[in-house]
Amino acid sequence: MLANLTEFGRTPMFTVDELRDAGVAVALYPLTAFRAMSAAALQAFTTLRRNGTQADALASMQTRDELYDVLDYRDYERKLDTLFATRR
After folding, report:
1. Rounded Cα distance, 69 and 62, in Å
2. Residues of the chain scoring pLDDT < 50
3. What is the spatial distance between Cα 7 and Cα 60, in angstroms, rounded to a whole number?
4. Chain centroid offset of residue 84 CA
């Protein structure tokens, strides 16, 4: 069984354990990240418009290093370097 869960609908906010106990094998949260990102973007742009700079919003932002860690970007760069170094 699959549960397609979205915020602000009629379905209660069941926990993963509650869904598992009800026989749900897969739970989808199709808009959770989008809604969170949209709220964060609105807050950041409101700060930028109000202050003329994003400086006061930096504390709530993901740093470059954090982004690279999530994406494993440094490993990707190494693989590209290796791939293109062997083609020369």
Report:
1. 11
2. none
3. 23
4. 31
